[in-house]
Queue: 4 jobs
Job 1
Amino acid sequence: MRICFILNPTSGTNRTQDVPALLTRYATAAGATFEVRLTQHAGHAEALAWQAAQQGFRVVVAVGGDGTVNEVARGLLGTEAALGIVPRGSGNGLARHLRLPLDLPGAVARACAPTFQRIDVGRINGRPFFCTAGLGFDAHVSKMFAQAGTRGLKTYVKISLREYRRYRPTPVQITLNGEQLLDTHCYVLAFANAAQYGNNAYIAPQANIQDGLLDVCLIDQLPFTRALRVGVGLALGTLATSGAAVYHTSRHILVQSAAPLGFHVDGDYVTDATRFEVELTPLALEVAN
Ligand SMILES: Nc1ncnc2c1ncn2[C@@H]1O[C@H](COP(=O)(O)OP(=O)(O)OP(=O)(O)O)[C@@H](O)[C@H]1O
């Protein structure tokens, strides 16, 4: 079995580590036949992953954060290769959901001796996501986060608190499965394939990544007391029973917004739109875990 590691050299906080050398050391120790390839720019991992799959690599491993995982996974859709993950980001949502090792030696060892399973794949306005996508406040925060000079959890919390004071919900119409119509407001509307955003922040604790359904989490308003309950619910995995959010499950969701709303895929801000089509393709990606 041949394994291709695709490394985003800009990911992770520890820049002093020689990651290619460590990958080589741990993969050699595991007796693997492998190659390490480095991305040269944002978006490059998708093309590298697709190319590796065409070259017959059985497992293509994203070495980076959720952005790199999204790119590699996108490149593997419709191919014969499985996605592996060596997590090096701050959130690592999909790796945590799949209960993959978070340390470098452990994750490399797992990627070299995996079991295989298939997972569902979401799409929002045509963009694939594997963990979560969403509209509203969380997307707005990802946009601000991308523009901030620094990264990490501290910056994220700081931006969230600052923007919370300014952000207002937008009127939206949500259609679930072509039937159920909700006339409501969007503070946060999250589409969860996996249970968490990353960092063990559980937006949809019940989400099952193989059930052919997205868990749709709606927070229509966020006054201060509810914000506290949402914060505690995210951290403890109790949001679904806290009463602070409403949940639905659906395979196909349409959202019409009264004003442009930002959306994110797997934590990365994409753009603003007023119409959103969200779909799920059951078991469309093989993962190595
Ligand atoms: N060689 C590169 N140079 C610049 N940017 C890159 C390169 N390779 C990948 N990227 C971009 O870097 C972005 C961030 O990467 P990624 O999410 O993997 O790491 P991270 O930001 O450290 O993780 P996290 O988001 O969990 O904190 C990705 O969106 C990707 O497109």
Note: Residues 8-12, 39-45, 64-68, 71, 89-91, 151, 267-268 surround adenosine-5'-triphosphate (CB under 6 Å).
Job 2
Amino acid sequence: MTEEQFPQALSIAGSDSGGGAGMQADLKTIQSRHVFAATVLVAITAQNTLGVQQSLALPTAMIDAQFASLAADLQIRACKTGMLADVATVKAVVNNLKRYDFGPLTVDPVMIAKGGAPLLTEDAIAVVRDELLPLATLVTPNLPEAEKLSGLTITDQAAMRTAAKRLQALGAQNVIVKGGHLTHADSANDYVLLADGSDFWLPARRVDTVRTHGTGDTLSACITAELAKGRSLPSAIRTGKAYVEKAITDGILVGHGHGPLNHWAYPEDRDED
Ligand SMILES: Nc1ncnc2c1ncn2[C@@H]1O[C@H](COP(=O)(O)OP(=O)(O)O)[C@@H](O)[C@H]1O
Ligand SMILES: Cc1ncc(COP(=O)(O)O)c(N)n1
């Protein structure tokens, strides 16, 4: 007999000791959406709002063990990846995602922290592109990440659309190209291309702030939480965008650099259709 379980989501990511990005942002976001959050930790960073001071990838056997533990007990309904450190880590995560069904996969192809520190080695980018993207229900690159994965230069909204098509051709079913890095614009519009070929823009006003540490993690974690509840992908995406916009707009002051977001800002009983 199987009992109906509470919605459970999984973050496969690196730890940010500063608490603003990475696994910590994922946990805070998923929790605030009333979904139970489980974790596969793949790397540890010594990090704060000023930058990344040190970084350590965990042994792949430990990654395998965490996946096996979850598969043996929990009922993960949706999962996401964040920082994946290096080639060995990406390959271990890919192998485990092929082995276990943890529901729709959102790939946030994290490469470089806001302060400029690399969170993925250069040689691992091709492995993400060739082996992880084909497993993705959704991929959510920022502009530099979309450029690296697509090989295109992206300086305007037309190029964002072209890049999304290219990423779909590489195997990701659905794509969000995030406009947060289009800093010459006074908007922060994201472009969404869905599996059926339909598309739409997520419009947002650009908030003039340096407190944007963990924006990408927060967006993808919120989408993952909504998918774990069984929401449709377009609805999950709209809720994710509204959640991150509110978390940036109603900022909190923590640290002295690229500060974290306010994960309490978006009303917990609201979602977008
Ligand atoms: N200054 C800003 N004002 C409003 N929205 C922003 C701002 N910066 C980023 N965003 C939004 O936050 C989300 C994450 O985007 P981005 O910062 O591009 O990703 P990443 O954190 O992966 O670099 C996107 O929805 C983006 O539009
Ligand atoms: C462990 C970890 N994972 C992800 C990010 C990306 O977040 P951001 O691009 O907002 O700095 C980060 N800084 N640290």
Note: The longest helix spans residues 233-249.
Job 3
Amino acid sequence: MGASGLSAADSFGPNLARQDGELYYLEQFIPAAEADHWLETLLAGLAWRTESIVVAGRAVPVPRLVCWYGDAEAHYRYAGVDHAPEPWTPGLALLRQRVESRCARRFNSVLGNLYRDGEDAMGWHADREPELGPWPFIASLSFGAERRFDLRHNRSREILNLPLAHGGLLLMGGMLQHHWRHRVPRQPGIRAPRINLTFRAILPPP
Ligand SMILES: O=C(O)CCC(=O)C(=O)O
Ligand SMILES: [Fe+2]
């Protein structure tokens, strides 16, 4: 068993990171017709809002919409902002169950990102806030437009590109957040929206 707790018996396929972390992609984790239903349900039913981060003393809106759901205690500091979660919707609770049983992992929260079109994006970052624990395990579920997901190794600068498709589940674990950054780049030709749900386990404050 690796540091992430993923056991060799789990059938996630090859580790796409190969070194310094664990990265698995399960294509069509949610079959296409069902994924269509989720895309509509989540677009219409979640509390999407704009969020600003402070850059050089100024509030700058991030180029996407976000939402945050979870168990009541799962507060999360993200980009310098404290998020109290909204309570689970029935749909998100169902998706959480599906993801949990596939990963044999528990999650107490989910960060949603809505990329309205190819102009929306997320810059290079790692998800390594202390409340995610020493080896953050994140399950990332995508619906809607296929978007490119890039990873860059901090030291070697090796780049990996993965297309994240409708219904696909990406798993990040082990030392991945310590050694790699990731992003969702702008893809100006894309007109359709994409929703990404990152299921996370937030530890209680020390
Ligand atoms: O949209 C994605 O696929 C990635 C989202 C992400 O990296 C994050 O929420 O931390
Ligand atoms: Fe991330």
Note: Residues 111, 113, 122, 127, 140, 149, 164, 182, 184, 196, 198 surround 2-oxoglutaric acid (ligand 1) (CB under 6 Å).
Job 4
Amino acid sequence: MKAKNVEIDDLNEASPWWSRACLRVDETIAAQARARQAQLTKPPGSLGRLEDAAVRLAALQRTPQPSLQRVWISVFAADHGVAAEGVSAFPQAVTGEMLRNFAGGGAAIAVLARSLGASLDVVNLGTVNDPGPIKGVHRAIVAASTANFCEAAAMSAAQLEAALAAGAASVRAARDAGAQLFVGGEMGIANTTAAAALACALLQRAPAELTGAGTGLDAAGVARKIAVIERALALHAVAGSDHERLRRLGGFEIAALAGAYVACAQSGIPVLVDGFICTVAALAAQRLNPGCGEWLLYAHRSHERGHAAVLDALHAQPLLDLGLRLGEGSGAAVAVPLLRLACDLHNGMATFAQAGVSGATA
Ligand SMILES: O=C(O)c1ccc[n+]([C@@H]2O[C@H](COP(=O)([O-])O)[C@@H](O)[C@H]2O)c1
Ligand SMILES: Cc1cc2nc[nH]c2cc1C
């Protein structure tokens, strides 16, 4: 499967594309898959959440034999004006520098994609330290960076639209390649500040509850980051809709992820959500279009403070809890083998009748 560039849809329509209906889960196939799980040679329910995952994938893929051979990973990279407030342990230049590392195969997600045999689509939405055209990096530049949301809205309406559309464009490429699962990843110095601010605004939570160390701030750095988010929330308290909250407090990669998640739900591609930033993007996606929630599976609980609370707000039960806090889609990629095994068990195990094994007596 090869990543390829696609055109962005014409958006001049009465209702925005992201509010269009999402596909519905096939409940008949879900019931059939649940019934098959009950017939396999094991005490019913003994494979726990692997059973649930296989049933859910069968229903989403609309097939009795779910499969994850063709996995698509899109990593969206972008810079954040709020980095100027000193909210990250790393310099802003890293975002642009990592683009080369993604394309060159040395980044964690590049290693994981190779290992999984997955397609890796790297999208540059705008980096201050822009490396220019690089083979293997798709340029969908919105601007060099968002604005510092302590002083102004992070994005203009046109920038938000372009970022959402860039996510949808990656999903069209994934669909054209026959992807059976979409993994979104992100890279952006200071994006845990944007994600925490947006989550606070969407969930009406205090910054101290959802703000963590990101790439590795010390306690004083986290206190400064909380104060920055408090200032931003005070400035943008007038915002009305969740779309407007995303525009004022989000980032290009966060919006692209939200657009991608909605587009996956509209095109029938299941999603595996990565860590803190991706989960906040998933929350934003559900606020833009509540129907997309059914299509989102959650890979892991990140080490980042605030992730657990956002997952709880979404009633999401992630598969893994490994203390990961890298981003890039890495936690989701790590969970793919588990989901593949869930599918293999579902498709390959013998039933009690086939194996001549006695069923339960009680
Ligand atoms: O995925 C996560 O849960 C996660 C948690 C902490 C940090 N990150 C990554 O670290 C970067 C943001 O950290 P920071 O400290 O610059 O806000 C960004 O590139 C993310 O991919 C990612
Ligand atoms: C090196 C580095 C790699 C990353 N990947 C995702 N976020 C990151 C942040 C840093 C600092």
Note: Confidence is low (pLDDT under 50) at residues 1-13.
